[in-house]
Design brief:
Blueprint lengths: L5 E4 L8 E7 L6 E8 L5 E4 L4 E3 L4 E8 L15 E9 L6 H9 L6 E11 L1 H15 L18 H12 L5 H14 L2 H9 L14 H8 L2 H9 L6 H7 L8 H9 L16 H7 L3 H9 L14 H8 L2 H10 L13 H7 L6 H14 L5 H9 L14 H7 L3 H9 L14 H8 L2 H9 L36
Parallel strand pairs: 1-8
Antiparallel strand pairs: 2-6, 3-5, 3-7, 4-6, 7-8
Helix pairs in contact: 2-3, 2-4, 3-5, 4-5, 4-6, 5-7, 6-7, 7-9, 10-11, 10-12, 12-13, 12-14, 15-16, 15-17, 17-18, 17-19, 19-20
């Protein structure tokens, strides 16, 4: 034959698609009989019909046509349908049709299998049918007409679709490939996006609305397609940046992760017109999962926007208790003020979010009570009301730090019984045991040691653990007692 594969160009709306091929008899003196068949007789017709006779050193031209044409999709199959050509020498040079059928109906050494030609469908409309069919199959959608995708019988839909798509786009123009890439990205089909990129589609091509494949992939919510495009060099444009600062993006954390993992997206450098980072946006919408993810990427929880707002300010102003609680545990901006001089507590109260009172103020009361003589009942009351025993002040002190520094053994005992962390570090790296040692409260130090506490100080002169006195000025660089008004 003059071809190794039959390529049928499919166009929507045409009656049939076809391809021509020629078979040559290389025998110098003898005619040959040939028989042509396909693996799918219901889908294809061969003309002229076979068996046929080809004289010596002659060519015969044949055509393959699709049967029962569909206006919107070709008869795709995977593995591909094939065309078989068999031959048999014909010493007499001619034979009746019945004799020819008899020759090929009886297997034996007289019949040669000369060629096996894969049947492929090509063209933009074929590629589009593959993309739509793959999308329907993944979403268990048979389409408006109720028909199953032609790829639904495939054992590996992704690999088969990618293979057939590569065949289909082999005759497409760069413009057609670009359009197909946008379609695959819009449907969130990462395997097909990858196949089209391998076929030469431009990852930064834009449609008439100036939308890029990356933006369409982001809108689809498919992280796989986003990763494929980013790894292929897709540019992060303004439209993508706007999406990453939208509420919708917070519902697709896997898509956000794809950008950060690509090293093309700086979680602290990506700011909107107000100077807000994705961390601010997560706080505005009260999305704790997004907050946690942004921080794991290195997001600066203390970053301020153009108005001096931290993520905590944003969460408090919107009344998101879960986000406020989470941020209080990881940030040092509880008392930070905006450019207007307002704390997170003030913003919450101005907006009527009184349910944040305990989170933003109750812990302060617990800290004060923890350092006051004879006020263990106040400590118990605030804890009963929901104050966190591990809450932090602006210096990173917990109530246990304050009670230890003030020598409040009864409060220390109560806080530990309530599950307070034994060795939390403040902003300077000191534990409650360090505080007790600094203040000379040997009885509190011994109590903490009995509970398993350890010092984090590098001070070699650890006399607090040996006698009744402790070195004075251990925290000479930081005034620990000024954390809160006593």
């Amino acid at each position: 034959t003059d071809v190794k594969e039959l390529e049928l160009l499919f166009k929507r709306g045409q009656q049939r698609c076809s391809a021509k091929f020629r078979v040559q008899n290389l025998m110098h003196t003898m005619a040959v009989a040939i028989d042509i068949s396909t693996t799918n007789t219901a889908a294809f017709t061969i003309k002229p019909s076979s068996p046929a006779v080809i004289p010596p050193l002659s060519l015969a031209q044949f055509s393959i046509f699709t049967n029962n044409p569909s206006e919107d999709r070709p008869p795709l199959a995977f593995p591909q349908d094939k065309l078989f050509i068999r031959s048999s020498m014909l010493p007499t040079g001619k034979a009746e049709e019945e004799q020819l059928h008899c020759i090929f109906s009886q297997p034996g050494a007289h019949v040669y299998k000369d060629a096996t030609l894969p049947i492929s469908f090509t063209g933009e409309d074929t590629a589009r049918a593959i993309i739509f069919g793959h999308h329907r199959l993944h979403h268990h959608d048979h389409g408006d007409d109720g028909r199953v995708s032609p790829l639904s019988s495939s054992s590996s839909p992704s690999s088969s679709s990618s293979f057939l798509l590569a065949k289909a786009v082999s005759v497409c123009t760069p413009s057609q490939k670009a359009d197909l890439l946008r379609s695959a990205a819009q449907f969130g089909e990462s395997d097909l996006v990858s196949a089209l990129i391998d076929a030469g589609a431009d990852v930064n091509c834009r449609d008439n609305h100036d939308l890029s494949p990356l933006y369409l992939a982001v809108l689809s919510g498919d992280a796989g397609s986003v990763r494929v495009l980013l790894s292929a060099g897709a540019a992060v444009d303004l439209s993508v940046g706007r999406f990453l600062h939208s509420a919708e993006s917070l519902r697709r954390l896997d898509v956000l992760s794809a950008f950060v993992d690509s090293d093309l997206f700086d979680v602290n450098g990506a700011m909107d017109s107000l100077g807000r980072t994705p961390l601010h946006l997560s706080a505005v919408h009260g999305n704790v999962d997004a907050l946690r993810l942004c921080i794991s990427w290195g997001g600066d929880v203390d970053r301020v926007d153009l108005n001096g707002w931290t993520p905590l300010h944003c969460a408090a102003a919107e009344g998101h208790l879960g986000a406020v609680d989470f941020l209080l545990a990881v940030c040092n901006t509880k008392y930070a003020v905006t450019r207007d001089g307002k704390t997170a507590h003030m913003l919450a109260m101005e907006s009527g979010h009184h349910h944040l009172m305990d989170a933003l103020c109750l812990a302060d009361k617990l800290h004060r009570a923890a350092g006051q003589d004879g006020n263990v009942h106040g400590v118990k009351e605030y804890v009963a009301q929901g104050a966190s025993v591990d809450s932090r002040d602006q210096n990173g002190w917990t109530p246990l730090h304050r009670a230890a520094f003030k020598g409040r053994a009864d409060v220390v005992q109560f806080l530990l019984d309530q599950g307070a962390q034994l060795d939390p570090l403040d902003n300077a790296g000191y534990t409650p045991l360090d505080c007790a040692a600094e203040a000379g409260h040997t009885h509190v130090a011994k109590l903490l040691i009995c509970r398993g506490a350890r010092r984090n100080s590098n001070d070699d002169n650890n006399q607090a653990l040996k006698g009744s006195t402790c070195p004075v000025g251990f925290f000479s660089s930081v005034d620990r007692s000024s954390s809160l008004d006593e």
